[in-house]
Write a structure and sequence with these properties.
Two copies of one chain form a homodimer. With 286 residues, chain A is of the alpha+beta class. Helix content of chain A is 14%, strand content 26%. The interface between A and B is large, with 45 and 45 residues.
């Protein structure tokens, strides 16, 4: 009996004999994966124990990202909350009183980084869209749009924007939001994008909606607490998350993008919007 | 003490003296609101007690809507569940076994209603989008797109589509889904749209996501039960919900649409997509 159980256990461990999956022209090559720097990863742990990981758009919104780093290093968000969840609009977090003193070194009025320097997409989508003459994906995996004069990161589902008061305010970066429904592209060029959620989006998108004005929870008890927000670079090496993004400046991503726009028959090809192109990331060992 | 409390209560009931809000050119006139027929309202009551109301696209997908009505009248969905919730994709409900016998009178293979007869938008958006040369809103408040040859309802957030097997299957209408994230327009012309959620969307969009394959819950305990799905026309008059939609074949909605596309300064006008035009409905007394 012992022997036969052992034999079964060994059989169960043996990998099934499967032919290797064919490599498609649209598949990433190993070298297409590139590391996201530790100080461009913001790790938000909710009071529920769930973790949301944000990739920071450091080269597109340097002043706001500098503020975000300063706030994270000061532990400024620890004990704060997700205080607004508006159906088909945004989840927003930070200090609901908007009265908490900023951490030392935070620039209260950073430059408005609503637009970015240039339209530098490595892969461009075939069609104009409702919001821009051109759109595409940067080499380092950001969705971008432009009109020939200006360029901007797009407020797709899961992007992270900086909440602000009425224009010309740009916000400091202490109050952040992410679109949780239809993309929020009417915020493009009017709000600063500081990042994108690359893991744990469902812990924000599935939070209960508030029916109160603008989706701000009516009572503190409805909020979801934030245990901590840290830069990965400030997390001890042994527990530090590591991520890579799929780069797009290669023919494999170009093939992937074309497949997304032009599906194989019998499916009718419909196109693809810049917010509907999956931008792959993966967790890797430290 | 009693008197002063009474005085306070009376004071609290007195309406504050406010000037009447000015009527804007983009505001609906009273006559712009039109009744949604009782047999075009599908009322899904979840086991949680929450209600989701769907407006049926009877004139665009007549065979599928006929099936939906037959299934509702047979109580076919009662006791079934929301069995799939995939992050940034869809919530889907019906019979997870896909083995339950259809109700008598249900057409097992209805006509594929992926496209509709004509592009009959009353108001057309200014720009082409990533998925269509033209898009707009029909007079009776449906988002629509076309390419000069065909036309179709668009898979925006909150639209209701018919789940199906691989093409050329069109599905019977027993398994329904709604996009809960970024719009799902790559399903346009490949899936049949049978309606739009007009109330209670948050009771589907905020359900916990499943990490299992394609978001199908791994265990029955994760599903959200469906207490009943009924046509409003089959609900006793005293408790029957009544809804009106805002019609769009009038200059007031045209002004509203232009405002949506071209925001007032200092906001930079960004445009609007067909999925980002709110299509107003309102509950009215019976």
């Amino acid at each position: 009996m012992l022997i036969s159980l052992l034999a079964l256990a060994i059989a169960a461990q043996a990998p099934p004999v499967m032919p290797p999956a064919p490599v498609l022209p649209s598949d990433a090559a190993e070298g297409d994966w590139r590391a996201i720097p530790d100080d461009e990863l913001l790790v938000m742990t909710l009071a529920t124990g769930k973790t949301v990981v944000i990739r920071l758009a450091a080269r597109f919104a340097p002043e706001h990202v500098a503020n975000v780093r300063t706030l994270a290093r000061a532990g400024w968000w620890n004990g704060e909350s997700v205080y607004r969840v508006q159906e088909n609009w945004v989840a927003q977090w930070g200090d609901p009183s908007e009265k908490k003193a900023m951490a030392p070194g935070v620039k209260a009025v950073p430059a408005a980084e609503f637009e970015i320097a240039a339209f530098d997409a490595a892969q461009i989508l075939s069609r104009p869209d409702s919001y821009s003459a051109r759109s595409g994906i940067t080499a380092d995996g950001w969705p971008i749009a432009g009109d020939g004069k200006a360029a901007w990161l797009t407020h797709c589902y899961g992007m992270v924007g900086v909440a602000r008061d009425a224009l010309p305010s740009t916000g400091s970066g202490s109050e952040l939001f992410t679109p949780i429904g239809q993309s929020a592209r009417r915020l493009d060029r009017n709000y600063t994008v500081v990042g994108r959620i690359i893991e744990g989006m469902q812990y924000l998108s599935a939070l209960p909606r508030s029916d109160a004005t603008m989706g701000f929870y009516a009572t503190p008890g409805e909020r979801t607490g934030i245990a901590s927000v840290r830069l990965a670079s400030d997390i001890p090496a042994a527990e530090r998350p590591k991520f890579q993004y799929r780069s797009t400046d290669n023919p494999r991503f170009a093939a992937y993008l074309r497949l997304r726009e032009v599906a194989a028959p019998p499916t009718v090809p419909t196109g693809a919007s810049v917010c509907d192109v999956p931008l792959a990331v993966r967790r890797v060992a430290g």
